[in-house]
Each structure stands twice: as structure tokens, then as C-alpha cells.
Design a protein that fits this description.
The complex is a heterodimer of chains A (162) and B (480). Chain A has helices spanning 14-45, 50-77, 115-119, 141-157; strands at 9-10, 79-82, 86-91, 96-102, 106-112, 122-129, 133-140. Chain A is α+β, with helices and mostly antiparallel strands and 162 residues long. Chain A has two domains: 10-75; 80-157, Pleckstrin-homology domain (PH domain)/Phosphotyrosine-binding domain (PTB) (PH-domain like), CATH 2.30.29.30. A four-stranded antiparallel beta sheet of chain A has the order 1-2-3-4. In chain A, strands 5-6-7 form a three-stranded antiparallel beta sheet. The longest helix of chain A is centred in the N-terminal third of the chain and has 32 residues, at 14-45. With 480 residues, chain B is of the alpha+beta class. Among the domains of chain B are: 7-148, Roll (PH-domain like); 342-480, PH-domain like (Roll), CATH 2.30.29. In chain B, the strands form four sheets. Chain B has a seven-stranded antiparallel beta sheet, sandwiched between helices. In chain B, strands 14-13-12-18-17-16-15 form a seven-stranded antiparallel beta sheet. In chain B, helix 5 (176-184) packs antiparallel against helix 8 (227-252) and helix 10 runs antiparallel to helix 11 (386-399). Classes of the chains: A alpha+beta (162), B alpha+beta (480). Chain A binds chain B through residues 2-4, 83-86, 92, 94-103, 105, 129-132, 134, 160-162, and chain B through 282, 308, 426, 428-437, 440, 445, 450-453, 456-458, 467, 471, 474, 477-480.
């Protein structure tokens, strides 16, 4: 794509489901705003109802985007590769970013997962350098733990001074 | 456990603290007095002032008495506070910088203040406000000499002992003329001008009306309000603030000295307030040469560094390594002071196809704003901004460039001012290459690097680099 070779690994395809669910939940929360407007705030203050419908239309578009379209685009470009001396990450929807993190710069790695991710057996791997933070989302939990161990081991070997 | 006694600071600290409290108290007291000026005549002012002075003196004395410090066993240790006792100790291995700052009063009294910073702290972690010069040097030497486990190292200048290491000292002083030039081109006068204008507008209600009327009549003859006079007034004010800011700059950076001994860099400057900083070469993460808009035509530049773990100045994120340098002296300066960094002989410019992107990126938003401004009266004046914006875009394109040497990446770019940023490969935390769909269509990339700096991380980026060049830089950075 950008350089001759993309990073080799893709993220887990369950990411789509997980992103769909969290996008959908976010959409439901967002729906409460125009609904509250139409049924509670609008009548109480005698405001035009049309704004409420516009709000519902916007929230519908937003939900479609965050639950279905964005995850599809996002997973298309998500790639990563962990090599002996560096971590190579590619992500983005329109703007595609390719990030190279040398092992010697990595200060710590964590895994984390919210309730939705946990339900699908996924975890996010977070990689921090002294100056920046990076993450690989939606790895299977075993894979995330494995990579965390791998990176931690590799990062420790080459411990240069900052 | 036998410990040496905790020491007090120099008793002059009482005077310094008192003066400081009084200075802090002046503005609120002044405005309070203004607000009750009618009842002011019925108050015994000398009596009140005397009481306040005695109270301040007592407080300062207590502060001095309760503040004690010692340095021993690898720690600097302080105790202070009356009701809320506070103790703090800093292990000297953790000390990143020891700054010695002497302001005007301290200089008169022959004392100095000492600020100790550790990694990650922007404010000084520990400060002593009144110690003798000798004592400050003792503490400084004590805190800084942990790295060299021997006794061979001495921070003062007379230690020209025949050390086995190359113990050369390179010093760079800035001549007075350069300082004046730097002040004149610093662009600070605009800030000062707005400060003066703001100050005048604040004071305006307190100037007696009759006096104001008198001045106005003199400046502006009746019924004949002359625009040119107003312009002259504004211009005069600008000129005045320009001269003042130049002098302030020259005084602030007077005797600017940069000294390098092995990996230690010492910066000292200031006439009224003297500052002295030490930093280790290891902590410098990126070096930037800045040709500001006002200085570039005179081929002058200044040099800054991104420093890991706290910069020297409190409010700034970067450390000034040299406030003004003639471009033709740059390579000599770099060779002497920072041989780690090389000025590349030629740089890879941006490809021709990115020119229109640079111009569009600035011009399109400006046109939108200008069109919106047409709705307000005199909005057409904003049209005048378009040619400079076009030229800025063009100039940004012309400035953009990259160069890779064996161990160093150089980026050249312009925001308003032109920058050359030199970064060693070992100091780049991460590299990022990104592209939006339009860039992908014309095989262009934005290349960005992150380095460690006092505010956590700093990112330098250059847009619309030829894909071939960005690939080269990527491969240069990649270790596999």
C-alpha cells in the first residue's frame, strides 16, 4: 500500500462484531437525546418538533457509520507486525498511518479489555514509549497475552538509555 | 546514625522574603486603596504600614528559621513549615538539573538561589532562595558529581588537570552587538505594544479628566480630528516598545555563554537576573535551528533544543542554546559545540507535484474565511490577506526538505518561521508515515517523528514528501 510491504498480521475478525456492538450501544445512548427532546423538552418549552426528527436522522446516520461502515473500513487497513527489533502498525480509515516503534523505545506494554471486548474474548494491546502511546485493538485474548510477553522480553533485551 | 547538622540558609533570606511579600502585596493593596480612596484620609497610613512591615518581617524570620537543609549520604534534604511540617529529600542520582539563578537584589546581597529539578518535573522540585555563592557551588558540585565515581572531576574552570580524557572546554560568547540585533528582531515588541495598550486602557479611568482634555487638545486640534496624528501616535508607541523590548532582551541575555566540556553543557546569561544551567548532552533529543521571519532576511538564526526531563526556563518547552547566530558561523558553531550533529550539505526537496497541495492547503480555508468576512462591513479588507497567504504556502513548499545521514535525520520546514530540525536516530521515539486519499493518488506521504521533550513528547512532521523519499527514511529508521 504505502511502502512495498504491509505488516503481515491482521487483527482478529471478531473485532467487527465487537465494534458493531459497541457502536450500536453508543447509538442507543445517542438516540436518547433527540427522543428526550421530542417527548420531554420540546412539549415542555413548546419548541418545534422538527428539530427532533432532524436529530433522529443524524443519530441514525451516526449509528450506521459507527456500527457498520467505520468498522468495515477500519479492519480493512488494520495490520501489525512484531519483529525482533520493532513493532510495525498500520491503521486508519481515510488517512492511513504507518507507525514504527523500535523495541528499545518501548517502556511498557499493557493489555486491556472492556465488557464488550471481554464478551467476544478480545483484548487491546497498548504499547507506550516515553513520548507516545500506541495500541493494537481487538486481538484474541491469548494472542494479546502472548504478544505482551514477547514484546516485554524483546524490549528488555535491548535496554538503551533514553 | 550520625548526621551532620541541618543548616539554615543565609539570614539575608529574611530580607528577600520580606521584599518578595511586599512586591506581591503592592497590586492588591494599590487597587484596594483606589477603591476606598475617599475614606483613605481618615486612616493612619504610616501606622498601618509599620504593622504590616513588622508582621511580614516576623513571618519571614519564622520562615527562615524553620527552613533547614542538609546534603549528605547522596541526598539533599530539606525541612520546612510551622504548622504543616514538610520534609523532602532528593536522591542525587535522580537530579537532572541544578539551576543557579541570581536576581538583582540577591546580587547586591551576595547570595543566590538554587533550584533542583528531577526528571519529569517542570517546576523546581526543591528550591533554596538565599545561599552564598560558595555554598551554591558546593551543593551543585555535590549533586552533580555522582556520575563520575572518582574525584577527578571538578565543575569549576580551574580544573585543567591532565585528565586522560579529552578535557577541552569550548566556549561561545555572544557579542553585545548580536544581542542587540537579536532583541531588535525578536518580535517581542508586538507583545509589549499590546501590553502597553492594554495597560493604558486599564489606567484610563484613573487619569484626571482635566489633564486628559488638556493633552487631547494639544494633540488633536478642535474639530479637526486628524487620522495621521493618530497613526503617528501609534507608530511612536510601536517604536518605543520596540526599543524597550530590544534593551530588555539584551539585558536578559547579556553575557550569554555556552560552554561545553565533554558531555556537559553549561549555559549562563543575564545581567540583572543571572541564570546558570547545566545539562548533559545525553538529554538533548533534538536540535532545531530557527530562522524567524524577521531574521531570515538578515541571515540570522537561533538554536534551540528539545531536552528530556524539564527544560531550563519555566514556561518554555525548549531550551535556548543560542539566541542569535549569523548563518555563516553556524557550521563552525556546530563543529565546536555540537559535533554530534551535522549540517547536511544538500537536502532532498519536495517533489513539484506537492506544490499545489501546499498552496491549496492554506489558500482554500483562507478563501472561505474571506468570503464569510464579506458579510461584515469593511470585510473586503481581508482580501489583502490572500496574496501573503499564497506566498506563505509557496514558501512552505520551497522550504520543505529532508536529508538522511548515517545516524541523523534532518527535516526542514516552515510554519511561519523556518526550522531545521536535527535528530539522531537513537533519539527518535517513533516514526509515522501517513497519507490521506489525495496524497495517495499522487504518491505523497506525510512523515512524522516523535521525540522526548519536556512536555512529554514533541512531534515534527513534514507533509507531502515523495513516496520514494519517505520509503528511504522509513528503511533508514527500521532496524530489521
Amino acid at each position: 500500500m504505502m511502502l512495498e510491504s504491509e505488516p503481515s498480521e491482521r487483527i482478529d475478525s471478531r473485532a467487527l462484531k465487537s465494534w458493531f456492538v459497541s457502536g450500536f450501544l453508543l447509538g442507543i445512548v445517542a438516540f436518547s437525546i433527540p427522543l428526550a427532546y421530542i417527548f420531554l423538552i420540546g412539549p415542555a418549552w413548546d419548541l418545534p418538533r422538527d428539530w427532533g426528527w432532524i436529530g433522529i436522522a443524524l443519530v441514525t446516520v451516526f449509528t450506521l457509520w459507527s456500527a457498520i461502515i467505520a468498522p468495515q473500513l477500519r479492519i480493512r487497513f488494520w495490520r501489525y507486525e512484531i519483529r525482533e527489533n520493532e513493532v510495525d502498525i498500520q491503521n486508519g480509515i481515510f488517512i492511513i498511518r504507518r507507525t514504527l516503534i523500535p523495541m528499545v523505545r518501548i517502556q511498557h506494554v499493557d493489555t486491556e479489555h472492556g465488557p464488550v471486548m471481554r464478551f467476544f474474548g478480545l483484548a487491546t494491546l497498548r504499547i507506550s514509549t516515553a513520548a507516545t502511546d500506541h495500541y493494537i485493538p481487538a486481538l484474541s485474548r491469548e494472542k494479546a497475552a502472548e504478544l505482551m510477553g514477547e514484546i516485554a522480553a524483546l524490549a528488555r533485551v535491548s535496554d538503551e538509555d533514553v | 546514625m550520625k548526621m551532620s547538622e541541618f543548616k539554615h540558609q543565609h539570614p539575608f533570606m529574611i530580607i528577600l522574603e520580606t521584599v518578595k511579600s511586599i512586591i506581591y502585596a503592592i497590586p492588591p493593596v494599590f487597587f484596594f486603596a483606589l477603591s476606598i480612596r475617599d475614606e483613605l484620609s481618615s486612616v493612619d497610613i504610616p501606622f498601618l504600614a509599620a504593622i504590616a512591615l513588622i508582621a511580614t518581617l516576623t513571618y519571614s524570620t519564622a520562615k527562615w528559621y524553620l527552613f533547614t537543609y542538609q546534603y549528605e549520604n547522596g541526598y539533599l534534604h530539606i525541612r520546612k513549615g510551622l504548622l504543616f511540617k514538610k520534609e523532602r529529600s532528593i536522591k542525587r542520582e535522580r537530579v537532572q538539573t541544578v539551576n543557579v539563578i541570581t536576581n538583582f537584589i540577591q546580587k547586591l546581597l551576595g547570595v543566590t538561589s538554587l533550584h533542583v529539578k528531577t526528571a519529569g518535573s517542570t517546576e523546581a522540585e526543591l528550591s533554596l532562595t538565599a545561599v552564598t555563592l560558595q555554598e551554591s557551588q558546593n551543593i551543585k558540585t555535590y549533586l552533580e558529581n555522582h556520575a563520575t565515581s572518582g574525584s577527578g572531576k571538578n565543575n569549576t574552570e580551574e580544573s585543567e588537570t591532565g585528565n586522560s580524557k579529552v578535557d577541552t572546554v569550548n566556549t561561545y560568547n555572544i557579542p553585545l552587538w548580536n544581542l542587540l540585533l537579536a532583541g531588535a528582531t525578536s518580535g517581542r515588541f508586538m507583545l509589549l505594544f499590546s501590553l502597553i495598550a492594554a495597560g493604558l486602557s486599564q489606567l484610563y479611568p484613573y487619569i484626571p479628566e482635566s489633564y486628559l482634555g488638556f493633552v487631547l487638545e494639544r494633540v488633536i486640534p478642535q474639530n479637526n480630528i486628524n487620522i495621521s496624528l493618530l497613526l503617528i501616535l501609534i507608530f511612536g508607541l510601536l517604536l518605543l516598545s520596540w526599543i524597550i523590548s530590544t534593551l530588555v532582551f539584551a539585558v536578559q541575555y547579556a553575557n550569554f555563554t555556552l560552554q561545553r566540556r565533554e558531555d556537559d553543557i553549561r549555559i549562563s546569561y543575564g545581567l540583572i537576573e543571572q541564570k546558570e544551567y547545566n545539562l548533559n548532552m545525553k538529554r538533548i533529543q533534538a536540535l532545531s535551528v530557527k530562522d524567524s521571519l524577521l531574521r531570515q532576511p538578515l541571515s540570522l538564526c537561533s538554536i534551540y533544543a528539545d531536552v528530556a526531563g524539564g527544560s531550563s526556563e519555566k514556561q518554555d518547552y525548549v531550551t535556548t542554546l543560542c539566541p542569535l547566530l549569523n548563518l555563516r558561523d553556524l557550521s563552525k558553531f556546530m563543529n565546536n559545540m555540537f559535533p554530534e550533529y551535522t549540517i547536511p550539505e544538500n537536502m532532498q526537496p519536495l517533489p513539484l507535484r506537492s506544490r499545489k497541495r501546499y498552496i491549496i492547503r492554506l489558500l482554500v480555508p483562507s478563501i472561505v474565511i474571506v468570503l464569510l468576512l464579506q458579510l461584515v462591513p469593511y470585510g473586503w479588507v481581508s482580501l489583502l490577506a490572500l496574496p501573503p497567504v499564497f506566498l506563505l504556502g509557496l514558501s512552505r513548499y520551497n522550504t520543505g526538505g529532508t536529508a538522511i545521514l548515517e545516524k541523523q535525520l534532518t527535516l526542514r520546514f516552515r510554519n511561519i518561521h523556518r526550522y531545521h530540525v536535527f535528530v539522531l536516530r537513537d533519539h527518535i521515539q517513533t516514526m509515522q508515515i501517513s497519507s490521506n486519499p489525495f496524497q495517495r493518488m499522487s504518491d505523497l506521504d506525510t512523515i512524522g517523528i516523535s521525540v522526548l521533550s519536556s512536555r512529554g513528547g514533541n512531534r515534527f512532521a513534514l507533509a507531502d514528501v515523495d513516496r520514494e523519499e519517505s520509503g528511504k527514511i522509513w528503511n533508514w529508521f527500521s532496524r530489521n
